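Why do we bother with holo predictions? Because pocket geometry can differ from the apo form. Keep that in mind while you read this record for adenosine-5'-diphosphate.
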Amino acid sequence: MNGPGRRSLLLVISAPSGAGKTTLCRRLLGEFEGMTYSVSCTTRPPRAGEKDGRDYIFLSEEEFRRRVDAGEFLEHATVHGYRYGTLRSTVEDALGAGHDVLMDIDVQGAASLRAVARGGDGGDVLRGAYVDVFIAPPSLGSLRRRLEGRNQDSGEVIAARLQKAADEMAHWREYMYFIINDDIESAYDALRAVVLAEHHRVVA
Ligand code: ADP
Ligand code: 5GP
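The structure, written out:
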């Protein structure tokens, strides 16, 4: 019988730092061949080991502004004094090629994209493709232990991340799906189930 093909998704994942977003996103990209990671633009300087075009598209303040004025961003925001944004073309090209697009973005960025997807300016690109998932740690105590275990941040940075995590957690109800990353295998099973189900959803 005739029916629609598999739906392409714009899959937005938000999680407090340390909740396991990177681990879960890597597994998704490893399993779903048609899924691409959306690389954002930023005006912040690259950190050691970061590659232009892979981790971010690094732009000057002036170039970023020019692209904002030209309407090239689907959404953009200022975080910690630097500008960040998602290019319309990144998402359009990937969805147009039948790929799923995976975005790792904070609650503020997700709120902007959600507003666009639900009828805001430029929403035609996203309509029917947008899906968002909030990943939470089992508790703030376990989040602290994971951040300490990762051995990447100083005590001060960890304290700031925990405060930010508590603020971000307050937004979980805004998301379509909510997954607690207690056991990584169960959390990943839930996440891949969301992707599989959403591929087959009939969109009005
Ligand atoms: P994020 O990208 O959200 O900051 P990561 O994926 O880097 O988080 O995970 C933070 C740390 O917690 C890593 O050391 C990771 O191996 C570990 N981790 C992830 N998921 C779990 C889990 N379910 N149980 C225990 N540790 C986990
Ligand atoms: P970092 O500089 O540590 O990589 O990211 C800082 C913050 O910017 C993170 O909270 C991240 O989610 C957010 N961010 C990264 N890319 C984008 C984007 O394209 N748009 C928005 N709104 N935020 C982003």
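The longest strand covers residues 73-79.
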